[in-house]
Amino acid sequence: MNAKMTDKLATAVFVSMAAIIVTVLAGLLGYIVFHGFPKLTFDFLTSPPSSFQAGGGVGPQLFNSFYILFLTMLFTVPLGLGGGIYMAEYAKPGRVTEFIRSCIEVLASLPSIVIGMFGLLAFVNLTGWGYTIIGGAFALTVFNLPVMVRVCEDAIRSVPKEQKEASLALGITHIETIRTVLLPASFPAILTGAILASGRVFGEAAALLYTAGLTTPRLDWGTWNPFSESSPLNIFRPAETLAVHIWKVNTQGLIPDIREVADGASAVLVLSVLLFNLIARIAGSYIYKKMTAQK
Amino acid sequence: MEWIEREQAAKDRLVINKKSSSVKKERRGKAVILGTALLIILATIAITLFLVSKGLQSFVVNGVSPIEFISSTEWSPSNEKFGALPFIFGSFAVTVLSALIAAPLGIGAAIFMTEIAPSWGQRILQPVVELLVGIPSVVYGFIGLTVVVPFIRENVGGQGFGLLAGTVVLSIMILPTITSISTDAMRSLPGGLRESSYAVGATRWQTIYRVLVPAASPVLLTAVVLGMARAFGEALAVQMVIGNSRDIASSLVESTGTLTTIITLNIGHTTFGSLDNNVLWSLGLILLIMSYVFIIIIRYLSSRRKI
């Protein structure tokens, strides 16, 4: 076989590899949407699950997922921003910076089940809270923090140096420069990164199994006092999220319509993640255009 | 009156004035930012210390033999026999097998995006890879359970649950990790490398095989190791398709387990502090140690980066 034939053959192999990947994704998405979409009725999305009979929904789970996501982002965004600013602006090359970078690397590479185990130890047993929403949100904060730090650091670093220097040359202090020049300029990138990270948090289950728990108490949608036992907003109640629910019905479910519930819940998860991706792209480029007066 | 105000404002902004509010603000801001950086260190140290001390308890307090723990194949908590080898073997087996499938596919796709169809290929594959990253692991597990497992049962044999199903699910899960890092690696190669190879008459395949892939090899290996780290630590997707028996896998289609699956299944059902529970934390310690090992390998590879 001569060189040209080999080259053509190799090209064909590479093209088919790319085709396999595209087919896998198309198959996955098609399968989930095709099976799950018909189940997405208003009733399914709002009614509570049933433990033995068919026809339960995922209302509380959907609420829990968003609530835990909200709390997690409430903790991670400021922390990630602080860490990112430190790494981009204050860290001097040396041992300490190297050590922090290693720590971020370790945190990022820990399996989520290990973070869940740490959460079980620290936020469930040590605090004596039991399975709680806040424990789950703390575990997910640990899970999400390295991602947010990297997003913020990269975003701040990518602001043109001249902008920062111009501000410093005007006699504006470093922290004011960060606040008034660097942060606004890096805002679109940070927002995009935060929304993409939200997608990851929304679908995470392993870190939540033994921190936020596998059950949801009966919720009273009329009580919005966060300290009431049955209030959906109570952060000291156990809460099963949508991703955890998919796992639970498939491994220990007793309901006859496991397949339907899992189909519907998977579709909600995947469509939400798609939506997060879409919003991240649109919001990022829209704000960027708005801020840079680009047409 | 106006000029006085303006002068005061200018004075405030002078950095030399130590008592000025802007200096205080600067210090306060810096303290907050330093605090968050310290929190990252604190979190990492806390996780490591907590899990190491908890993971050693079964050896130190309960007297389980560490050698037996990692070399025996008999896991039966009711008889106080704790041989974790089946799970350790299962974890390594699915990790290596899924890397064997995902590495060629991922690197191939990266080469397709950078060398063969840089314009339209990338416009299609880039979003595909990003979406694959975004699909939650339980959804991969669920698809594995409803599509892959029945397919294996009908076409390959056995119950369908086992290493093969785990491998298929994991290789799809780690594919985007390997693809995106490999793409970056191929793209960051200096263009002169490519052009000089074409200039001496090499075909595209020869250029890829003899010049580009060797030049990018440390980063390509890093991509594969990162993918393996992800596969090793994945819990729920594997748990749903692997069958969860306690025996060492004798064939690809026989039910078995991994470190993550046995932890996921049992840590909630055993009493905290009991022997049955402590050994699970020891399994968690192995996971922690392995994620440090993966980091060390990646560090070593990046120090060998040629270009």
From TrEMBL, chain A:
PANTHER family per UniProt: ABC TRANSPORTER PERMEASE PROTEIN YQGI-RELATED, PHOSPHATE TRANSPORT SYSTEM PERMEASE PROTEIN PSTA-RELATED
One Gene Ontology CC term in the entry: plasma membrane
Transmembrane segments: 12-34, 66-87, 99-123, 129-149, 181-202, 267-288
NCBIfam families (UniProt xref): 3a0107s02c
Keyword Magnesium: no
CDD domains given in the database record: TM_PBP2
Ranges for domain ABC transmembrane type-1: 62-280
Alphabetic keyword roster: Cell membrane, Membrane, Transmembrane, Transmembrane helix, Transport
Organism of this sequence: Alteribacillus bidgolensis
Membrane topology label: Multi-pass membrane protein
Membership in a protein family: Belongs to the binding-protein-dependent transport system permease family. CysTW subfamily.
GO biological process terms held by the UniProt record: phosphate ion transmembrane transport
Localization in the cell: Cell membrane
The protein's name in its UniProt record: Phosphate transport system permease protein PstA
Keyword DNA-binding in annotation: no
Gene Ontology MF, one: phosphate transmembrane transporter activity
From TrEMBL, chain B:
Keyword terms: Cell membrane, Membrane, Phosphate transport, Transmembrane, Transmembrane helix, Transport
Record has DNA-binding as a keyword: no
Family named by the database record: Belongs to the binding-protein-dependent transport system permease family. CysTW subfamily.
GO BP terms in the entry: phosphate ion transport
Membrane topology: Multi-pass membrane protein
PANTHER family assigned: ABC TRANSPORTER PERMEASE PROTEIN YQGH-RELATED, PHOSPHATE TRANSPORT SYSTEM PERMEASE PROTEIN PST
Protein name as it appears in the record: Phosphate transport system permease protein
Top-rank lineage group of the source organism: Bacteria
Subcellular location: Cell membrane
Species for this entry: Alteribacillus bidgolensis
Function: Part of the binding-protein-dependent transport system for phosphate; probably responsible for the translocation of the substrate across the membrane.
An MF annotation (GO) of this entry: phosphate transmembrane transporter activity
GO cellular component terms, semicolon-separated: plasma membrane
Transmembrane segments: 31-52, 87-112, 124-152, 158-178, 211-232, 279-301
The keyword Transport belongs to this UniProt entry's keyword annotation: yes
Stored PROSITE patterns: ABC_TM1 (PS50928)
